[in-house]
Amino acid sequence: MMAFLAVPAVATTTMVMERGVAEMIDEPITLSVDGNAVTISGAQGQKLIVVSLTGRQVAEYQIDSPAQRIELNLTKGCYVLKVGNVVRKVSIH
């Protein structure tokens, strides 16, 4: 069983080129945790980084699609998930 903070994890950042000028527009990144898996939306081309509470990186996954489900296969404990500017602490029981 995995417990997580009730606050939705959302960050925004997309760069758009228009008339030769780069513009930042908001596009949400969402993390949805279900058991030992996480579904990530809006983060194509970025990486999911999993860090233990001791600060050691335990896993890294490339996000290749607009919405991707990743099986984490972690042992019991607390971890920090990071994608772009979104950071979420999760607990696996």
- The first-level CATH class name: Mainly Beta
Q: What structural class do helix, strand and pairing data support? A: mainly beta
Give the fraction of residues assigned to helices.
under 10%
The helix/strand series, from N terminus to C terminus, equals: EEEEEEEEE
Task: Report the uncertain regions.
Answer: 1-8, 10-14
Total count of strands: 9
What is the CATH topology assignment? Immunoglobulin-like
Total domains, how many? 1
Give the termini distance in whole angstroms. 5 Å
Q: Main sheet: which strands, in order across? A: 1-9-8-5-6
Radius of gyration: 14 Å
Tally of DSSP helical segments:
0
The overall average pLDDT, rounded, is: 80
Provide the β-strand percentage band. over 45%
Shape: globular
Report on the structure:
A hairpin with a 2-residue loop joins β8 (77-83) and β9. The chain has one domain: Immunoglobulin-like, CATH 2.60.40.3080. The chain has strands spanning 2-4, 10-18, 21-34, 37-41, 47-52, 57-62, 67-71, 77-83, 86-92. Mean pLDDT is 80; it is low at 1-8 and 10-14. It is mostly beta strands. It is globular.
Which keywords apply here?
single chain, 93 residues, globular, five-stranded antiparallel sheet, Immunoglobulin-like, mainly beta, four-stranded antiparallel sheet, 9 strands, 67% strand
